Amino acid sequence: MTPNGDAIKAIRTAQKLSIRALALRTGLNRGYLSRLERGLIAHPGESKVALIAAAMQVSTSAITHKETPT
């Protein structure tokens, strides 16, 4: 399961949620979340992706999809 960092950041900012707040909700390090959003972590593991999705109250598919150019 590969996360889409742009989708994570877009959802997080739409919810007016800071990286710090997301880190508190998930128990994950802020730096880790930042690297994930920037696409520097390719395979974080399903449990971490599920944890982030649950913290933002979205489905895992919402943060793992890739936009396709039209």
What does this structure look like?
This protein has 70 residues and is mainly alpha-helical. The protein has helices spanning 5-14, 19-26, 30-37, 46-56. The model has no long low-confidence stretch (mean pLDDT 91).
Q: Which parts are unreliable, with pLDDT below 50 for 5 consecutive residues or more?
A: none
Secondary-structure class: mainly alpha
Strand fraction band? under 5%
Instruction: Report the radius of gyration as a whole number of Å.
Output: 11 Å
Give the SSE string.
Answer: HHHH
The beta-strand count equals: 0
Largest sheet: none
- Shape descriptor: globular
List the helices and strands and how they pair.
Blueprint: H1 5-14, H2 19-26, H3 30-37, H4 46-56
In short:
Helix content is 53%, strand content 0%.
Which labels suit this protein?
globular; mainly alpha; 70 residues; 4 helices
